Amino acid sequence: MAGQLSLRRAYPAGAVIGEWRAADGWVHRRFDWPAAGAARGSILFQGGRGDVFEKYLEAFHHWHARGWNVTSFDWRGQGGSGRCGPHPHCGHVERFGLFHADLRAFWSEWRTATPGPHVLIGHSMGGFLALRSLVDDAVDPAAAVLVAPMLGLKGAIPSRLAERLARLMRGLGDPARPAWKGNERPATTETRESLLTHDPDRYADEIFWQQADPRLMTGPPSWAWVADAFAETRMLREDARVATMQVPVLGLIAEADGLVDAKAAKALIARLPEARTLAFGREAAHELLREADPVRDRALAAIDGFLDEKAPR
């Protein structure tokens, strides 16, 4: 356990924490860890809403040990990439189009600067943004992995009604205001920890990094984020281009996910011509790569096998 803890709570030797500036001047915090020796290829990993790349250092160690270059950046408006509104702990973005533009531009620069094959891995919101970028031909990886992708949001009311209510709330006041006070979703009796992982030590890693650097803490989303999340995921589910997107995709789905709509994700991934899905049951919460070892190891093994097949050296 001590060895695992050291992997999760310290930056790896050889990794570089730097900055990337978008076309509009927005500064993003980035992580780059070149492979030792000749690289097997390059992975761009993008986390979910409120994530920081420190949460995935253990997974980065796994891929780096297999010869991959590993890169990640914090999305604008969260983590170490600043805030887009006046609330220091609110995950606000004016529109998801900014995320799309950032990923397109970063991918173009990163792909030119790193050896292939190039792989895109996205968790949760990052999974949605990855798939949307694939459908838009904004990125061109050899293969992509969607981990508990946000292809629909889990809620107590039908998504169409939730979308209309969110749009109404965005228009009633400051769209940058927090949509709720805390936790990962409103009006839930589940703790934030139980929504994310069954492994209390890995959950505590996030708290460790937030205490080490308070600017990394991102709280609830803004109403602008919520409204766009409902609208954009719906539009992707309705997009006919999904059925013609040819990049091989692996979807890892937590069927008991309390944050994203697992059924919507499975249905959408099933429409992709070159896709396969691995589902987890009640043993898995939302953060599959930060779950207890039986889940996490199964997820990593599936990713390894998929990349060996679809993105060979």
Question: How would you describe this protein?
Answer:
Helices cover 38% and strands 15% of the residues. The chain is an alpha/beta fold. It has a single domain, classed as Alpha/Beta hydrolase fold, catalytic domain (Rossmann fold), CATH 3.40.50. An eight-stranded mixed sheet has the order 1-2-4-3-5-6-7-8, sandwiched between helices. A hairpin with a 5-residue loop joins strand 1 and strand 2. The longest helix is centred in the last third of the chain and has 18 residues.
List keywords for this structure.
Lysophospholipase; phosphatidylcholine lysophospholipase activity; 10 helices; 313 residues; eight-stranded mixed beta sheet; Rossmann fold; AB_hydrolase_fold
Low-confidence stretches: none
Largest sheet: 8 strands, mixed
What would the average pLDDT be, to the nearest integer?
95
Tally of DSSP β-strands = 8
Strand order of the largest sheet: 1-2-4-3-5-6-7-8
- Structural class by sheet pairing and helices: alpha/beta
CATH homologous superfamily heading:
Alpha/Beta hydrolase fold, catalytic domain
Instruction: Please provide the ordered H/E string of secondary-structure elements.
Output: HEEEHEHEHEHHHHEHEH
Query: What is Rg?
Result: 18 Å
Strand content: 15-25%
Instruction: State the separation between the terminal residues, measured CA to CA.
Output: 32 Å
> What's the CATH architecture?
3-Layer(aba) Sandwich
Count of individual domains: 1
Main CATH class? Alpha Beta
Could you estimate the helical fraction of the residues in percent? 25-40%
- Total of helices: 10
Gross geometry: globular
Organism: Sphingomonas yantingensis
GO molecular function: phosphatidylcholine lysophospholipase activity
Enzyme class: hydrolase
Protein name: Lysophospholipase
